[in-house]
Each structure stands twice: as structure tokens, then as C-alpha cells.
Design a protein that fits this description.
Low-confidence stretches: 1-18
Number of helices: 11
Strand order of the largest sheet: 5-4-13-14-15-12-16
Bound molecules: flavin-adenine dinucleotide
Number of strands: 18
Order of helices and strands: EHEEHHEEEHEEEEEHEEEEHHHEEEHHH
CATH architecture of the largest domain: 3-Layer(bba) Sandwich
Helix content: 25-40%
Largest sheet: 7 strands, mixed
CATH topology of the largest domain: FAD/NAD(P)-binding domain
Length: about 400
């Protein structure tokens, strides 16, 4: 009989609970942005009391930026955490307005209904972390390594301290130390274009919906209302040399260009393209924006696993740590939240009903990998349709 992959026996020698009877498993979550706090809260709700979140930043900083579209499954998981939609959804439009632009004028408009709602990183992060007890969330703790101590996973930190765990959840984003340690051959590759991003002051004429403009090959612009103004993203090609010149370091090193990294040359590049390609009202939004950031669009090989045995314990990659996907897919945060719920389900079944831990974890991996793989493949297909990064591909 051939067993489905998730039920195959693992090479793990002691796949069943490694913690002594009565003791709860120690779960260390690395990363305190969106995926990490979600998994930590789900576990706390399920009754796990040995959960710790380690976040590198002194106070979690908005690296991934502004607007985030969440689909119904992710919104439902937030509901279960008691996060009312009114807390994270400031504008409840479900409309995506897609406009083909020719000579800076709207040529063709298609309206679609988004099966979800838009939030922002700031709202969602605040809602999640406000619910995490102080004793669980440890900021200013950067993980540098993973080893074992007498068979138990052991995290190393920049401050020289260590932490033992039974399960390590790496939710540490696209530059993940977890991925580098567990899956070192999956390296990020620059896709040849940049998501320039800005928060503009509120316009005179209020905007209600998510608007996507396609002015032609090598460019896409999106804009939507957020509390206090507008969040826009302008995708434009850039060679690695141009990226380095505009943001002070190569794309592989500067994966988030924060406002202080945005040079006058980068601003001028974006302003110039806005003036040449976008309808006047949208160009004016870009020109009026002082707070700017940028993210180089990166690709990665699709993951083949998200789970690794480490001594008698386990390590898991979730969210962008597992598979950072291109922003146009609007799947990164969705994937992370859905994977977090899958992991919490497996651990809860193990703890509450003595389900075999290895089987439960592998089944979760089997359920959640396909969505991550699909999103990894979808990004380059969308980029190619938009003619983005074409020069880089050669
Ligand atoms: C322009 C743009 C638009 C997007 N739109 C959408 C969208 O509409 N829908 C959607 O679902 N997704 C969207 N995304 C993707 C989404 O923002 C990310 O997928 C999401 O933020 C990933 O969350 P995460 O918690 O997995 O990782 P991150 O948000 O990257 O967080 C990782 C955290 O780990 C911490 N960390 C890193 N290294 C260490 C370490 N060694 N030790 C301790 N802590 C560490 C970091 O400081 C950070 O806080 C978009 C992204 C961009 C750039």
C-alpha cells in the first residue's frame, strides 16, 4: 500500500511527544510581525502556556509596509482570535477597480469584487500584539542560530543568550535565518523591479475602493484609502546597479528600503515616471508624498517542505520565512495566517487528544504547502504579463 506523503513514516527517531508527561511543550516563535503573533495567539487560545515570541526589532517596525488584502479564510482566523473586523478594516469596500491607462487617461475599467477586505500592516500588527501578554513577546531578541542541547532544539541570540524549545516556529520574514539554516539552497533572487511605496495625505476627493492602474509594459500602480490618507505602490523596473544607486545597497542586501534609504535620485525617478505615465490625479498623489519606502521584488524556488526534525524536537517555517511571494499575488500575509492556523490545529490535536505529533505536523504541511507553491509560481506569471523585470530576464 502506498501511503499519501503526509502519512509516510518520518526519519524522526522519537516522533511522539518529546516533553515529559504533564509538561507543556515549549514553543519558540521567531518573528513578531504578522505570522508570528498570529500563531502565538492561536496557541495561547488553545491553552498552550509555554509560548515565547522573539522579535529582532526593538519595537516591531513596519517593514512590510501598508495596505494588505486579506481573504475570507484569514479574516475568519482573526475573528476566532476575537479581532473584530472594525478594528483592522478602516475602509470596508470589496471593490477592485482595474483601469487600463493609455496616454495618461483611463481607457478601460473593470470592476471586480474582492473576496476579502483590506487592512494595513499597522492596524493588523497592533491588533495582534495588543493581545499578546507582555511576558510572551520579547522584542530586541535577534536569533542567530539553531543547535541542539541534549537532543532539544536550542536557539542562539545576538546577545549571547540561548533558549531551549521543543518546537521552533520561524516566522522571521523573507530574510529568514530559519530558512538559511534549514533550507539553505533556496536563495532569494532579484526579479528586476521595485515596489515603490508611499503614504500620501488624504485627497480632496475621497477614494473608496482599491484602484489598480495598468499604463503599459513595465509598470503598475495601485492605490487605496488607509487611515489618514492613501497608500500607493508603484512598480517600476530597475537594474541591480540602479537599485544600489537609489537605495544605497544591492537588492539582496537591502530588502526593505526604509524612508531614510530613499535617496533624492529614487524620489526623482518615481516622480518622473508618475508624471509621464499616470493620470494627473494619481501623479499628484505621488508627488505630494513625503513618506516613501521601497521593496525590491524577489523570487525564490518553491518550497518542498516546511517542517524539519531537530534533535527530539521540530522546526517549522511559516509565512514569508517559508515562501516570500511577489506582492501582486496578495498572498503573503494570507498564506502566513492560514499556515499559522494549520500549525495550531496540529499541535492542539496532539496536546488535547494525544494525536501523533509527527503525523499531525506532516498532515499540516501537506495541506498548506500547495498554496505557498502556487503563489510562488503566480508571481512571475503576473510580472511577465505586466512586462515587469523583462530587461533583467534578458
Ligand atoms: C507592496 C506589498 C504589498 C503587499 N500586499 C499584500 C496583500 O495584499 N496581501 C497579502 O496577503 N500580503 C501582502 N504583502 C505581503 C505581506 O506584507 C507579507 O507576506 C507579510 O508581512 C509577511 O509576514 P511575516 O510575519 O511572515 O513576515 P514579516 O512581516 O517579514 O516579519 C518578519 C519579522 O521577523 C523579524 N525577524 C527577522 N529576522 C529575525 C531574527 N533573526 N530573529 C528575530 N526576529 C527576526 C522581523 O523583524 C519581522 O518583524 C505585501 C507586501 C508588499 C511588500
Amino acid at each position: 500500500m502506498t501511503l499519501p506523503p503526509h502519512t509516510r513514516p518520518t526519519a524522526h527517531p522519537t516522533a511522539s511527544p518529546s516533553h515529559p508527561a504533564g509538561r507543556q511543550p515549549r514553543i519558540a516563535v521567531v518573528g513578531g510581525s504578522l505570522t508570528g503573533p498570529t500563531v502565538a495567539l492561536l496557541l495561547l487560545h488553545a491553552g498552550f502556556d509555554q509560548v515565547a515570541v522573539f522579535e529582532a526589532a526593538p519595537a516591531t517596525a513596519p517593514l512590510a509596509g501598508g495596505l494588505i488584502g486579506l481573504e475570507h479564510p484569514a479574516l475568519d482566523i482573526l475573528d476566532r482570535l476575537g479581532i473584530n473586523q472594525s478594528e483592522v478594516v478602516a475602509h470596508d469596500s470589496e471593490t477592485i477597480c482595474q483601469i487600463t491607462v493609455r496616454d495618461r487617461r483611463p481607457a478601460h475599467t473593470v470592476r471586480r469584487v474582492y473576496p476579502g477586505r483590506n487592512t494595513t500592516w499597522t492596524l493588523l500588527h497592533a491588533a495582534l500584539t495588543a493581545r499578546i501578554p507582555e511576558a510572551v513577546l520579547h522584542t530586541n531578541r535577534r536569533v542567530t542560530g539553531l543547535a541542539t542541547d541534549r537532543g532539544q532544539p536550542l536557539l542562539h541570540f545576538t546577545d549571547g543568550r540561548t533558549e531551549l524549545a521543543d518546537l521552533v516556529v520561524f516566522a522571521d520574514g523573507r530574510t529568514s535565518i530559519g530558512r538559511r539554516l534549514l533550507d539553505p539552497f533556496r536563495r532569494l533572487r532579484y526579479a528586476g523591479y521595485v515596489a515603490h511605496r508611499g503614504h500620501a495625505p488624504a485627497p480632496h476627493e475621497p477614494l473608496r475602493d482599491f484602484v489598480r492602474l495598468e499604463p503599459g509594459p513595465g509598470c503598475q500602480y495601485t492605490v487605496a484609502p488607509i487611515p489618514g490618507g492613501l497608500d500607493w505602490t508603484f512598480y517600476l523596473d530597475a537594474s541591480p546597479t540602479d537599485y544600489t544607486r537609489r537605495f544605497g545597497a544591492p537588492p539582496e542586501r537591502r530588502m526593505f528600503a526604509l524612508p531614510q534609504h530613499v535617496s533624492p535620485a529614487a524620489r526623482a525617478h518615481v516622480d518622473d515616471h508618475a508624471a509621464r505615465l499616470l493620470p494627473a490625479v494619481h501623479a499628484a498623489t505621488v508627488h505630494a508624498t513625503t513618506a516613501r519606502m521601497a521593496v525590491p521584488v524577489m523570487d525564490i524556488d518553491p518550497p518542498t517542505r516546511m517542517l524539519w526534525p531537530v534533535g527530539r524536537g521540530w522546526a517549522v517555517l511559516l509565512g514569508d520565512a517559508l515562501a516570500p511571494v511577489r506582492p501582486h499575488t496578495a498572498r503573503g500575509a494570507n498564506n502566513g495566517i492560514e499556515q499559522a492556523a494549520g500549525l495550531a490545529t496540529a499541535l492542539t490535536q496532539h496536546r488535547r487528544w494525544a494525536a501523533d505529533l509527527a503525523a499531525a505536523l506532516h498532515a499540516g504541511q501537506h495541506r498548506h504547502l500547495p498554496a505557498a507553491v502556487t503563489a510562488v509560481h503566480r508571481g512571475p506569471a503576473i510580472g511577465a504579463r505586466l512586462g515587469l523585470g523583462a530587461a533583467h530576464r534578458g
